[in-house]
Each structure stands twice: as structure tokens, then as C-alpha cells.
Amino acid sequence: MRASHLRTIMKTTPAIFVAAILLANPLPHAHPADQVTITVQADKPGAKINPAMWGVFFEDINFGADGGLYAELLKNRSFEFPEPMLGWKPIHSFSSGPPQGSLSIHNVTPFNSANPHYLRIESTVATFGVMNEGFRGIGVREGESYDFTAQIRVSEGSPGVRVELANPAGKVLAAAKVTRLTADWKNHAVTLKASATEPKSRLNLVLEGKGKVDFDMVSLFPQKTWKNRPGGLRADMVQLLADMKPGFLRFPGGCIVEGNVLTNRYQWKTTIGPVEERKLIINRWNFEFRHKPTPDYFQSFGLGFFEYFLLAEDIGAEPMPILNCGMACQFNSGQLVPLAELDPYIQDALDLIEFATGPATSTWGAKRAAMGRTEPFKLKYLGIGNEQWGPQFIERYAIFHRVLKEKHPEIILISGSGPAPEDERYDFLWPKLREVNADIVDEHCYANPHWFFTRANRFDNFPRNGPKVFFGEYAAQSDRIVSVENKNNWLCALSEAAFMIGMERNADVVRLASYAPLFAHADAWQWTPDMIWADNLRSYGTPNYHVQALFCQNRGDVVLPVKLEADDGLPKVAAGGVGLGTFRTAAEFKDLRVTRGGETLFAPDFAGTSGWQLPREGRWETRDSALVQSDARATATAWTADTSWTDYTFTLKARKLGGSEGFIIGVRNGLPNTRVQWNIGGWGNTRHGIQSWLGVQDQLVGQVPGSIEQGRWYDIKIELQGPRVNCYLDGQLVQTADIAVPKTGGIFASAVKDDAAGEVVLKLVNATGTARDFAVNLAGVKTVKPGAKAILLKGENLTDVNDFDNPIRVAPRQLPVQIRSPKFTQPVPANAFLVLRVPVQ
Predict the structure, then answer these.
(1) Angle between helices 343-357 and 390-407 (to 10 degrees)
(2) Cβ proximity of 536 and 200 under 8 Å
(3) 3-state secondary structure of 508
């Protein structure tokens, strides 16, 4: 547990009182039948763990940079938005009546040609001006100082300029006058000290007297930035990162690396040098503001590649820049750079390596030195592309790989396996990346907690040779993927802890991992859930943040083998009813029979639809002992109500009546996300495919070529044998797949050795509804020394979340623990994550 978290807890509860509560109310011991046995082979260390294994992923999404981590408080400070007055509104005397002046945008003789637009304020009477609304308001704190700067010149007359901070009602919270104005562009600065705390204040620029004044690069920063750097980063948000002790910082994304089109891609060279020369572009996430429409999401690049390298160094993390591979986002335009025109993109990669690591006398090293950094930065990792897929990506990555490995063999290159962890794109890319000898492959997954619990052993049987894994974007989803309902609740965080334990056990394969997205502004976000939430004044870590932090802070040097013996009490066999469906097709179904051994479980005569859950879509009816769906445009499935059948055989006849595809036969419709369907004649009536709903909706498990004829009856059989699904068409086995029974929890454990501390570090997850006693045997340990520590993370309820009013509702707390021998019993509460650090000899 970080000291900052302990301090927060102690502010509300005296330390002696906390200790008294814990000692007087020790963790309850479980019933003997609930005991878990763990044997740690402490004398047989396994794979070495990458010191940078657990890190953070940053992308300018959810106002993560402008309006977030980058501490600039004014929006559209250089008037370069396509609507150049966006964020600015006229003010005049704060009284009724028509405006006594005008606002206009010009680009003649600008302050800087890279950002040529500037604002002209003309006052025709006494007082007239303009206000900036900030990023959903401007947050200021009572007694704190804010630095205002602007490039200003007088075009006509000799008016004065007053700068104000005001609350939404117009009450002035701070004011200062700008003096010594001239007819030439000149940088002016004043300090504003807030008289009250206000999260939604605004900045006023007021002309006093008649005249015309030009303004550009109008800026407002808190003096209290990270390390008090002028024009720097928000201190509280960086502190949350520093407290984690992450091993790496991936930047700048994410989909913004790609851009919706290539002209809007992230180009690192335009993000360095003086801020007034950095050219603004629209943010790729401007096009996908799911929570609220917005026209105002742009990238000013005040936070650029130089600042990212500094930030990585500040928080003790390896920098991990990601560059465009010559492809725009395939979810948008999918625009491609011809292979013959890829050289500038490759040169960008070579120049970036020189910018980061080259001597100050080199071309790009000199640009770094001009920014105040003569000594090189560290650079070990470089990503090529984000989550592209298909042969186009392989063609382009192979060229990058060949050139960069020839010129910079010391750089570890990161490629990608597409946007999902289990689909045809993933299956295509991995073999191709093995062929080109890729270093590390970036895998992404956004799925529900069932997926993470069930896939905790994902890497147990992964190939040990060849490319390694960077699980670079993942987050458990509490509801639909990327929806308003998604919450950073404790169940999601607990499932991520279970999955991370699986990655840690396989640290020889998984070399890097990071949660995503990192930041979200409470009033301006596109995507949930997110690891850290902020408003204009506050920020807090979610339960997911605390899980990530505990892994970062309790990393080890080597993996220790663990043997886990436990009955988690969860279903081992999938159960559920059957379904009949269509996809843009009309069809009829008859002669249904569900059997197990010699027993018939279900055999409807279709005299009616009793026992079926019929969807609203489609035209469903029974006729001639068959169930008919006669709308050839409908996409719908009817399911039986029974959810208890297991290990059964489902047989039926089906006939296509019309439409573009075949039909869908479902099984295992029981517990959430156990459903499996066989899509017969899908994908334009060209293939048959098994699909699963395990965490990722409509997840393709496997495909084979095939089509369905209209008007012909087909004999269909699906066998369920535990996780095995066998699919037959007209007596022939067409497809088979093992589809795991999704877990709603479980027992999970890993162990590592921290050589410097001389400690065995155990991570234990009890994701069941009862407390469990973990009987631990540290095999090969002679002596346990005093000083063992236990850190517990849990919520009172699986739906618990942190928020601005209760930022540590779910947060780590230290437990009193006494471990005197290599064999001991440690109680772990229900639905809890516990870290044990045991000094050994």
C-alpha cells in the first residue's frame, strides 16, 4: 500500500483505532470443507519477470490530455479550431443592452505562422471583452495562484486590458491588469490568486476604453503543476501514476495513433519544439463521443512526445512510444499508404529513435537539446501500429521490422494481433507475425468479468518460443461493451486481478500488460470504464486502479511454481436450453428432440409455442408441427425456457424458406454468457461457424466453408460433452470446438520472489461468496523471518464503485499478520484480493 493511500485513510480514522478494529475483528476462518491448499516451490524458481511487466497505457481519450493531464485551463487558446471562436463568448459591462464592441478572427501578420489565427477585440464605448469557458469550466482553488500569459498587440487606440477569473454568476474571484501594451506582438504575463474555490469558473479578457487589441496563445496554468513546471501537467493526476510505480508508459495511444484518416494521424514531429509551433488537429475520438455529442475535442499537443518522455522518467517507467504504420483506423476509413510510399513513415521511426537516444550533436538529438535536454532518454520499446489487422498490416509491419532491426537491433518492436483476443483476425495475424520473427505482439480485450475469470489460464499452454505477448489494452466491462452503463465496479476489478495472476504465472510469455483507458473526465468522456476519473479539481483511483497498483508495487524477479488445490463450488459443465433462429432469413424447424443417454428431455409437437421465449422481431408461428419464422429480413432467435439441461444431444430438421443466409441453432442458453450457436450458411451463405457469447458478444470460435440451399430439409445434430461442442449436418461432423464453461468467480493464486527484499510475494484471489482458508506451504524455505505483511483489497459488495464523494470506498488496507513458519494458514474473505509478503531465508 502506498503511503499516500494510508494517509487518506488515517485522515478519517485514527491509526490506533484502525489497528484496534482489525485486531479485535480478525478475518473469519472458513469451514474446513472450504480450505484451499497452496504449495509454492520457493526452491525451484521459474521464469524471470520483466521488471517493466506492469505498466500504464495513455491515450488522449475522455479529455485525457487537453482538459485532463495537460494542465492548460483554457480551451482553443490559439483560435485554431475549425470554429475559431469555439470556447469563447463575448461579454460587455455585465449589463443589459447590445454589445459595445466586436470580436473577429484574423490571420494577417500573425504571431506565429504555424498557428496563424488570432482574436481581435474592438471596444467602441467603455468596457467590452470575451470569456473562455475552459474544459467544462475552469477549476480554481481558494488561495492558489494561476499564471495567465498571452501574446498581445494594440492595433488601434490605447485601451487597457483586465484579466479576471469569475464564477458562473459573474462574481470576480481574481483580477489583474496587463500593462505596457505595444503595437508589436509581445508576451504578457500576470498572476491571478483565487479568492474562492470554484470548479466551473471562467476567464474574462476585458478591454477598458476604446480601441482594438489582438490576442493569441492565450493561456492559463495553475502554478501548482507536477514538479511545479511552468506549462506542465496536473499534479494530482501524475501523482496517482507515480504512486502506482508502473514499469512502462505507453503513449500516445491507441486509435489516435491511426487517426480516422491519415491526415489526422498522430505525427510526433509536430508535437515537439515551442508550443506555439505545434499544430492542432482534431482528435480521432471527436467522432465517437458516446456520452454527449461534442464539437470541441482537439489536440493542442502541449503534451507532446518530449513531455511524454519526461513523464515516463518522472514516474520511473520505461517509455513506450507507438507510431503509425501507414494505416488509418480500420474502424473508420481504413486508408492505406501504398507500400512504395512507406519510406517517410519508416523514417519517422528512425528519427524518433535519434530524438530520444541520439547525441545532442545529431540532427534530431539537437532538437531535443534545444528543448533543454542534452542527455539522451531511455528507449527500449517501440510500437508499430495500434490494433490493425489483415494482410495489409503484415505487409507494412514486415518492412518496418526489416529496416529497424537492421539499423537498431537494440530496440524491441511491438506489433499487434488486432482488436479482439479470439477471432479470425487474431488467428490470421499470429502465425504471420511468427513468420517475420516479431518481438512482442500486442493483444487487446474488452469483455465482461466471466471472460477474465474463465481465461485466467489463457497463457498456460501458450507456445514458449517465438514472439512474446504484450496484453496492452484490457478492461472488464460491467455491462455492454463501451456503454453508458459500464461501471468500474469491484466485480470487474476482481476479475482483472484473477486474469493478472494468470499472466504473472506465465511471465515468460507475457512480458508486458496495461489496463485501458487510463483517464476520464467526469463531464467529458467517450468510453467507460476507465482507470482514473477526474473533474476540474479532483481525481481518484477506481477499484481497477488499486488492483493495477498492487501488482506494480508487488512485482517480483522470478516466478515461483504454485500448485493450487481448491473446489471453487462453481459449475463445471455448461447447462441450458436450445434455440432456433434466423439471420436475414426465413426458415422453419421441426422434429426437435433433446436427449441425454436414453432419456428424452424435450420433444415439442409445435401444437403451440408454449415453453418458448419468442423474440419481438420476426413473424413466428406454428403450423404443420413446425415452428416457422417467415420474415426473410429478420434477425431473431427463439429459446426454450429450460436452463438446466447438461451433456445433451439436440437433433432437428430445418429448411430455408427465403432470404440471404441460412439458419442458426443455439445450445447452452443457461447461465449468463454460456450460450453457443451454430450459424449454418452464414456470412452471405458462404460459411458455417460456431459462435460463443463468452464475454465478447457474438465471438467467432471457428469457421468452415459451406452454404444452404433454399427449400431443402437438413438434418442437424449438436452434441454437448462438457465443454466440447460437436456439430453435424446430414450425418457428417462439420465442426467441433471446446468452449469453456464461463466462471462467475473462482480461486486464483500466483507467487513470485522479490530478490532484493528477500521475500516471497503471494497474490491470492478468492472470487467466491464464502471466506476461504488458504493452507500455504512454502516448500524449500528453511526459515520465515519476522515482518510479514498482508494487504487486502475488497468491496462490501461486488457492485461497489469509488466516486468523488467516496474515493476510497474500495482501497487497499494493511492487515495484521503473523507468519512464523513455512507452513501457515491465511484466511481470505469472500470476493477479495490479498497480497502477502513473507520474508524468507
Answers:
(1) 40
(2) yes
(3) coil
Q: Which residues are bridge partners to 596 per DSSP?
A: 599
Q: How many CB atoms lie within 10 A of CB 806?
A: 12
User: What was the pLDDT predicted at 673?
Assistant: 64
The candidate with the shortest Cα–Cα distance to 482, out of 283, 259, 290, is: 290
Axis-axis angle for helices 343-357, 363-370 (nearest 10) = 50
Whole-number percent of the chain with pLDDT over 90: 82
Q: At 474, list the grid cell.
A: 484490457
Per-position b or e across 299-308, b if 16+ CB within 10 A of its CB? bbbbbbbbbb
Give phi and psi for 367, each to the nearest 5.
-65, -35
CA dist., res. 158 & res. 551, Å (int): 61
CB 740 within 8 A of CB 688: no
- Residue 429 contacts by C-beta under 8 Å, 6 or more apart in sequence? 389, 393, 394, 416, 417, 418, 441
Distances (CA, A) of 737 to 427, 666, 727: 15, 14, 9
Phi then psi for 655, rounded to 5 degrees?
A: -140, 135
pLDDT category at 153 given cuts 50, 70, 90 is: very high
Distances in Å between the Cα of 551 and the Cα atoms of 245, 497, 639 are: 9, 9, 43
Q: Is 387 a catalytic residue?
A: yes
Per-residue pLDDT tens digits for 708-763: 999 999 999 999 998 899 999 999 999 999 887 778 899 999 999 999 999 999 99
Give the model confidence (pLDDT) of 237-270 as tens digits: 999 999 999 999 999 999 999 999 999 999 999 9
pLDDT band at 672 (very low <50, low <70, confident <90, very high): low
Q: Which of 74, 181, 70 is nearest to 138 (CA)?
A: 74
Give the pLDDT band (50/70/90) at residue 11.
very low
How do beta strands 510-515 and 468-476 pair? Answer: parallel
For residue 295, the model assigns a pLDDT of 72
Find out whether 671 and 716 touch, Cβ atoms under 8 Å. Answer: no
| Residues counted in the chain | 841
User: Which residues, in sequence order, are CB contacts of 703 under 8 Å at separation 6+?
Assistant: 424, 683, 687, 688, 689, 690
Could you tell me which of 243, 753, 809 has the C-alpha nearest to residue 548?
243
Helices 305-314 and 343-357: angle between axes, nearest 10 degrees: 40
How far from each other are the two terminal CA atoms of the chain, in whole angstroms?
24
| Residue 343 grid coordinates | 519510406
Among 72, 387, 504, 661, the one annotated catalytic: 387
Global pTM value: 0.88
- Kindly tell me the sign of the dihedral angle through the C-alpha atoms of 339, 341, 343, 349: negative
Count Cβ neighbours within 10 Å for each residue of 417-437 and write b for 16 or more, e otherwise. bbbbbbbebbebbbebbeebe
Helix (H) or strand (E) holding 56: strand 54-57
What dihedral do alpha carbons 398, 400, 405, 408 form, nearest 10°? -170
- What distances in angstroms separate CA 247 from CA 231, 242, 243, 318, one per listed residue? 26, 10, 12, 6
Distance CA 246, CA 701 (A): 34
Cα separation, 465 vs 261, whole angstroms:
37
